[in-house]
Amino acid sequence: MSKVILVLSDGLRYDTAVAGMGYLGHLVEVKLASLYKVTGELPCISRPIYETVHTGLPVSVHGIVSNLVVRPSTQPNIFRLALEAGKTTAAAAYYWFSELYNHAPYDRIEDREVDDESLPIQHGRFYTQDDYPDIELFAMAGMLVRRFSSDYLLVHPMGMDNTGEAYGANSAEYRNHAIRQDI
User: Fold this and answer.
1) Cα separation of 173 and 58, whole Å?
2) Which residue ranges make up each domain of the chain?
3) Rounded Cα–Cα distance for residues 174 and 133 (Å)
4) Can you give the pTM of this predicted structure?
5) How crowded is the C-beta side of 6, counted as CA atoms within 13 Å?
6) Which of 29, 32, 159, 167 could form a disulfide with 173 if both were Cys (CB 3.0 to 4.6 A apart)?
7) Which CATH superfamily is domain 4-182 in?
8) SS3 at position 157
């Protein structure tokens, strides 16, 4: 059985990824990774998109219509389906994923590190600051791979989004962040 790692780089433009992420491009070229151009669901904001990516449903169906909707997913989603199939799941991700797939509201002490086989995200490491360093998040994801060898792992860095909001998506800072994330 194959394992899946989804790297959901928040705020990363497709053209920037193709132009600046040569190593990932190489992995796609030799068929060790896949690249998909995703047309965002409206409204094009974070929490609704996370739910759309993990359920395959439009906002009008899943009901997470804004970042202010703080509740667990009510729809079949990748984490729940994997759990029901006896697979293991993990996430190194922004805390909104904990709220969407484990429980809400997020508790900074109880929910930061989760290892509970009964939860949809069985092995979770969650962060709350938008400027949380990507390098630390990728190290956290690496630890989850080594420790749990999950069937589905979500890796969700916010650095691209944070840099884009601070400097703009056409800035050198944004392009350089993509290159660093690729490394």
Assistant:
1) 33
2) 4-182
3) 14
4) 0.94
5) 16
6) 167
7) Alkaline Phosphatase, subunit A (3.40.720.10)
8) coil
Amino acid 143 reads: M
For residues 3 and 111, what is the distance between their CA atoms, to the nearest angstrom? 25
- The tokens describing 65, both together, are 């219509």
Closest CA to 70 of 44, 92, 95: 95
Q: How many helices (H) and strands (E) does the chain have?
A: 9, 5
Q: What is the pLDDT along the chain (183 residues), one digit of tens a residue?
A: 589 999 999 999 999 999 999 999 999 999 999 888 877 777 889 999 999 999 999 999 999 999 999 999 999 999 999 999 999 999 999 999 999 999 999 999 999 999 999 999 999 999 999 999 999 999 999 999 999 999 999 999 999 999 999 999 999 999 999 999 999
Q: In whole angstroms, what is the distance from residue 96 CA to residue 40 CA? A: 18
In whole angstroms, what is the distance from residue 114 CA to residue 150 CA?
14
